[in-house]
């Protein structure tokens, strides 16, 4: 077996121990003679798994009963619409534009015809950093940010103050990567698709302060109301049962790594190693401003597009995949999500040095 070193931006790699456990349980889940995907989402067995996963997430993030933990479908793109449909009260929704994913969310607010305001943007600087002067209003219906900008490789060190308004966080690409204080940050909704740090595509984790779900108007379709899913514990329709099972295995693995604090320390070490290699060289240039650098997605360039292409091809020949930059940014991107090890990063850094020696 020749497993690749996987630097893909999403879906991304899973730890081999998680995959092996899924393999062991594939034909026979806990001695029951079926795969978990073959049984009812309303049966006892799935119920225990489902509620166990919710408990693990509550413990990891220290989330209390004021919040509901939901497993939805439709990915990040559905949240772009579902957030304004459920939270907008007729006042103003405030957004920070930090790149591709917030631009899409803002476009969706526009499509829905809600009154919204972009309070800060780094577009004029090519989204190379988290916008500097973020001033949210205390009376905003909600304040929207993207925690980690997957394409540009930027990440909030700390979330901005909303002065009491609910903060909505797209955490798709740094889910389960560090500790987050929900109450301290006034978090109203915190969501992310599982496919970057939590397992296969198809499950979206949505953590929502329950009182916010009461805002929804009757005109919103039943299945698009958070309230519907809170009241049915995410079982208003058939949930992605196998995806939730895989997520649960990933949660166990995160706990083995010391929970979010342990994972965050590993992630910091990996990021430090890779950025140090970029900074030590005149050949590679990092995309993000240093104070905004992401610990998850490292976007960088060689001196020209030809060499970028060559880099990707030669890396692939060395068993390293997923290093091509996003199509709108070009260049290179190494996504170093939770399942990428420090050793994997060191192997990449060695390859980078060798590539520079030959082509610099
Ligand atoms: C991947 C990603 C999305 C989109 O997720 P889908 O599940 O493909 O809809 C949204 N926001 C961020 C920050 C992402 O990285």
Provide the helix percentage.
25-40%
Indicate the mean pLDDT: 97
- SS-derived structural category: alpha/beta
Distance separating the two termini? 34 Å
Order of helices and strands: EHHEHEHEEEEEEEHHHEEHEEH
Strand order of the largest sheet: 2-10-9-8-5-3-4
Bound molecules: pyridoxal-5'-phosphate
Structure summary, number of beta strands = 14
What is the helix tally? Answer: 9
- Rg calc: 21 Å
Please mark out the parts with pLDDT under 50 across 5 or more consecutive residues, or reply none.
none
Largest sheet: 7 strands, mixed
SS strand fraction: 15-25%
User: What is the global morphology?
Assistant: globular
What would you note in describing this structure?
It contains 9 helices and 14 strands. The strands form 4 sheets. It has a 7-stranded mixed β-sheet with strand order 2-10-9-8-5-3-4, with helices on both faces. A 3-stranded antiparallel β-sheet has the order 11-12-14. It starts with a strand and ends with a helix. The model has no long low-confidence stretch (mean pLDDT 97). It is 35% helix and 16% strand. The protein is globular. It is of the alpha/beta class and 360 residues long. Residues 10, 75-77, 101, 146, 150, 170, 172-173, 193 line the site of pyridoxal-5'-phosphate.
């Amino acid at each position: 077996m020749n497993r690749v070193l996987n630097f893909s931006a999403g879906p991304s790699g899973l730890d081999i121990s998680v995959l092996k456990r899924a393999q062991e349980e594939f034909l026979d889940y806990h001695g029951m003679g079926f795969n978990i995907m073959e049984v009812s989402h309303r049966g006892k067995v799935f119920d225990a798994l489902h509620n166990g996963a919710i408990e693990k997430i509550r413990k990891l993030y220290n989330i209390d009963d004021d919040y509901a933990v939901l497993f939805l479908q439709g990915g990040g793109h559905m949240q772009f619409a579902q957030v304004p449909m459920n939270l907008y009260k007729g006042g103003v929704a405030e957004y920070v534009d930090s790149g591709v994913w917030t631009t899409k969310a803002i476009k969706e607010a526009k499509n829905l015809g809600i009154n919204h305001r972009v309070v800060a943007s780094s577009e004029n600087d090519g989204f190379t950093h988290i916008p500097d002067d973020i001033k949210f209003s205390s009376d905003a219906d909600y304040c929207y940010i993207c925690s980690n900008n997957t394409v540009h490789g930027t990440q909030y060190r700390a979330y901005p103050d909303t002065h009491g308004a609910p903060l909505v966080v797209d955490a798709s690409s740094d889910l389960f990567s560090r500790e987050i204080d929900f109450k301290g940050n006034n978090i109203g909704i915190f969501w992310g698709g599982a496919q970057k740090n939590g397992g296969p595509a198809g499950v979206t984790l949505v953590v929502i302060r329950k009182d916010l779900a009461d805002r929804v108007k009757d005109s919103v379709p039943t299945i698009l109301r958070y309230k519907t899913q809170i009241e049915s514990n995410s079982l208003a329709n058939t949930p992605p049962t196998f995806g939730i099972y895989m997520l649960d295995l990933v949660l166990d693995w995160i706990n083995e790594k010391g929970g979010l604090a342990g994972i965050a320390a590993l992630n910091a070490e990996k990021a430090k190693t890779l950025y140090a290699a970029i900074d030590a060289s005149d050949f590679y240039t990092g995309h993000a401003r240093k104070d905004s650098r992401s610990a998850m997605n490292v976007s960088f360039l060689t001196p020209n597009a030809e060499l970028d292409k060559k880099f990707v091809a030669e890396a692939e020949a060395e068993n390293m995949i997923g290093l091509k930059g996003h199509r709108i940014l070009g260049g290179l991107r190494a996504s170093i999500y939770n399942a990428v090890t420090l050793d994997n990063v060191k192997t990449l850094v060695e390859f980078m040095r060798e590539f520079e020696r030959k082509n610099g």
